[in-house]
Amino acid sequence: MQYEDRKPNNESPIHFAEETSTGSRRNVNWKPPPPGVIKLNTDGAVQPNTMEAVSGGVLRDNSGRWITRFCRNIGSCPIIQADTWAVLDGLEIAWKRNIRHLEVNIDNIEVV
Prior knowledge:
16% of the residues lie in helices and 41% in strands. It contains 1 helix and 7 strands. The strands form 2 sheets. The protein has a 5-stranded mixed beta sheet, covered by helices on one side.
């Protein structure tokens, strides 16, 4: 797993666009956590032909400022494992940073 403490130039990524599976773009609104709570956003991805998987995420405060980001090259696995690795890595990083008030967002209901 890799993670970085550097903050990107844009410290307020509240509104952004993401590419859908069809190649179109849609706007996404990030909702901040309550004051005193850190938000963990995670995701996993699997290349369907090879099953090569990666996962990652970001921790942000209630102003949208990045605390840290992380990623992992997993190898070969199904998407539920990639998504689970992302959550586990994010929780481990938060714990090591003494973050105890955490809101977790993930797009895979099976992991929840």
